[in-house]
Amino acid sequence: MRRFSLKTKMTVTISLLIAGLLSVLALSAQLYFVDQIKSLLYTQQFNMVSAVADQIDDKFRLSQTELVATAHTLKKGALRDPATMRRFFELRPKNLAMFDNGLFLFSAQGELISGNPLDPGIVGKNFLYRDYLKNTLTTRQPQISDPFVSAQPHRHPIIMFTAPIFDDHGEVAAILAGSMDLTKDNFLTKLGRITLGEKGYLYLYSADRMMIVHPDTRRVLKQDVPIGVNQLYDKAIAGFEGTGETVNSRKLPFISSFKRLKTTGWILASNFPQQEAYAPIYRAQSYILAALVVVFLISMLVVWLCMRFLTAPLISFTEQIRILAQSKEANTTPISVDAGGEIGVLGDAFNQLLKDLDQQRNELKRQLEFSEKLIEVTPIPVFYKGADGRYLGCNQAFLNFTGFTREGLVGKTVSEVTPSPLAEAHHRADLELIAKGGVQIYETKALQGDQTLRDVVFFKTSFTTMNGSCGGVLGVMHDITERKLAESALQSQKEFAESLVLNMTIPTFVLDAQHRVIIWNHALEALTGIKAPDVLGTDQLWRIFYESERPLLADMVLNQNAGDVASNYSNYSSCRNSPLIKGGIQAEGWYKDPHGYGHYISISAAPIRDRQGGLVGAIQSLEDITERKQAQDAHEKTRRQLQLILDAAGEGINGVDMQGRITFVNPAAAQMVGWTQEELLGQHQHSLMHHTREDGTGFPEQECPMALACYEGRPLQGNEELFWRKDGSSFHVEYNCSPIREDGELVGAVVIYKDVTERRQAEDQLLKLSQAVMQSPVAIMITDPDGNIEFVNPRFTQVTSYTAEEVIGQNPRLLKSGKTSPELYQNMWDTITCGRVWTGELYNRDKSGTTFWQHATISPIRNGSGVISHYMAFMESIGERKKLEEQLRQAQKMEAIGQLAGGVAHDFNNILTVILGFGQMLQHSLPPDDPLRDHMEQILDAGDRATHLTRSLLAFSRKQVMVMQQVELNELTRRHAKFLVRIIGEDVSLKASFSKEPLLVMADSGQLEQVLMNLATNARDAMPGGGELTIKTESVTLDKEFHRQYGYGMPGRYALVTVTDTGTGMDAETQQKIFEPFFTTKLPGRGTGLGLSIVYGIIKQHGGYITIFSQRGFGTTFSIYLPLVAVKVQSSEKSQSFIPEGGSETILVVEDDPAVGRLVESVLKRYGYQVILAGSGDEALELHESRWQEIRLALLDVIMPKMNGMQLYEALRQRSPLLKVLFLSGYTADVIQDKGIFMDGVDIMKKPAKPIDLARKVRDMLDS
Q1: pTM as predicted
Q2: CATH 3.30.565.10 residue ranges in the chain?
Q3: Closest residue by Cα to residue 1147 from 1182, 1172, 1127
Q4: Averaged pLDDT score across all residues of the chain
């Protein structure tokens, strides 16, 4: 191969560099100018297309405007006149020139009416299906249609312009249309004839890809550009306007511009062939290329001449070096260089290099001599042969081994000095080494000088000559006979060790230094189910034990990265370095065998080292300790449970050894005594917490039963021992001491103790509570959640007569009387089962069947978990309260009826006052022999009876004005008994028995007579077939027994009047209602039901009591108790039978009842008085204001609207302090006082007042 000179290489390189730079510069300039030319070309072409598009839009607008203007000239009446329309079209040649396919007139229904030119074949046809008509009618605006094939005979493609014609109502009456033929010579078809350059052209298409104008008229009205063929064509439809390069549907490259028409939305496009457009660019590229070739040739010549001049000294220098290299003598003469600069420096450096090489050659010679001596004295046999197999030399050690002399060996082949079998083997090895090169190591036999065969290892390598060919073999022979013997012994040991490992009961495997499995014992085969041949030699042992790759412990031992154990075996317990073997690792964890059984294995991995301590392998055992692990877990679980028990126990638990020192203690014990657990451990228990008795004296350990029990190993239980806390306070405990034995030997004791201080306090409180419950005056009962009685106190037995033994286990239903509603029991049960307290009254029955009232409060009792465990009932006897409540209800009932009766009686009094007053006045005015006097007397008698009835009502309501005076009850009863005989009838006998001692009481004799009369009347009615009525009087003393029996009665001496009949009697229910108003046992119309109510009211007004005792069929007894008085006061009552005198004074009468007012006025005027009558307090004040000087007496009603009598009295007295005032009222003083009117110190008369009594009282007031 020809070698080029440096001059040539440099010339070519520099020329190529210049050519490359010029090419890059020319290419950059070309790209810039090409880009500028393209941009200019794109802009000019788009501007041209935009200008043409604007012209087309202008033409469309002009045509549409012209058509609309023409439509406006049409008269509406001429639309259906063919002659008129024909003349209309003929007179518009300008329109026909613009619309070269004619003008047409359509009706609003789409029917062709007329046109020019007019084809008879289409006149009258309906074209409403055409879009241009539908859009015009819909939008009412002029329209330009998309191209379509005309219905005219020529069937040319046309476009239609429309203009609506409106009638007088603004509705579309017709449509004027003008059409352009796309095959004729008009401004649209001219687009197809415009050329851009030689082969460029314009075309027009719609958004639905229909070709409207094209130089190839065959493509008009066709959609022959598929989507995706012309990318810019598609982009223009999507809205693109501009210029770009594209390939048209005919696969020709073009520069295309696109502009959308504003009037129709059609797209005007231009196609300019790229070959024609870029022709100037291609010519410019040819010129640039020719210029580059010329410049390259010139630059190459200049560079060659320059390089020839520059490399002349270098050529001289290299020639001298070549001569020097060809010289076989060691010539060290320096090379002369006649040049400066870099070549001169190079010559100097080369001369220095020659000098250094000479020095190195001398040094190599010395080293060769040293190496020969070193080989010679080396104790290992060394030899070297030529490439022909003949020995070239050896050291003394080799001669000593073989027994040859140097002269007898050098020049001979191995076959000449070694027996044939060995010689052939050595010769083949030499040939192989010479052929392949490198280093050769092998073991073989060698014949020693004493003709014995020795085990040796040959280490051979080839060496090369100066020309690089193989010069021979250099070998070293190492006698390994002793090592072989040692290895044989070692192999025996290895086989023994392998057999030991293979037959171990613990699963084990061994890895070599390359992590390959070399031993897989039988136990491991049984554990994993994998045979040794399947794994021996593999270094992917992780696949057997784990799902993902990670090193085994043996791998970590080999890698000496035991620190990764925690990260790779985080789910294994006890991962740690072996405490026994340096570099060993231990771990424990679960392994699942192929059968799915889990094994808990103890993994140990240890390094295997040679004699020098080098790491040559690792052994790993996997001991199945599942049973031991389960035992350990069970033991640990038991230990944890015991520890949890110790920690959670509320009792203190200490362990003590035989010296009494605390060995373990739970938190509860530490908390009790105030020391921490750490402080207690190791302390002497007795000295620390049991050192002093309760009285403060010391407590020697030898006297402590707890300490003795611990030392003697016997169990002991104790109560009330005193333990001491760290702060010096003490507490009582109860304890249990149990010995601890190990293998039958006593090693200590466990002391369990509990603070019983709170329990002692609770027991004291419980004792007090128990005593309170047992001694409670309230019956207490406790039941379980099902209502079964578990406890009753003694009071329960006293109330119900049931003993505790009789009721415990029973249900409280045994107390039911049957008179309590089931709804009440259901409400009670619902309330307490919901956890609320129920309170109510129960009508129960005791053991004897006697019923009684109880007020019960039943509360749920919850246990520590908040669950209802019991119910507790407190039952208080309320029999006495029920009696009082019954009396209160009776009194309230009587009060209510009394208020009604009092109100009626008051109003009736006013009426009777008028009747009796005017009746008496009329009677006095009649002559004595006037027959009307009898009639008048009958009227007055009836009025008296009505008065008597009114007083009875007032007595019933306790509003009767009573005249309380001392009455001797025996005398009153004896006198009234004569009257009662006439009332009860002849078939009833009356017996009377009077007390021997006088019975003085404070009473109204008339009302007591009323009581006797009502009782006698009721007795008569109770004995319709006759009988006996007995009245008895006596004195008695009431005590607590009376109050206990009846629930009322103040202690003291009383007069007792007993009225007994032998009539039909009454039952208990009737007795309870007998004093109720309007209650009667008589037939309808036979009684009012007020008789006994009035009796009851009168007796109560007298501060007495009335009781009843009756049995059905055995008669009835009424007992009246009236308080006795001690001293009899003589009556000083004056006789008031005289006729009063009259007078002439002026009297002011104030009465809100007009009838009563007129009566009083008439009575007073009859007696000569001057009367001023007022109906209210305000009117009375006005009259008094004007006539106060003449008024001597004011007669006032007490109860009046707005201003009552007392208020009027005070107002009159302020004006006339000496004015005398007399009050007249049908109300009693207590009622008046209830209304807030206090009548102390005033004169008052009760209604109905007789005229004579009124006149007498007035005269007395005036004269006083």
Answers
A1: 0.32
A2: 962-1130
A3: 1172
A4: 82
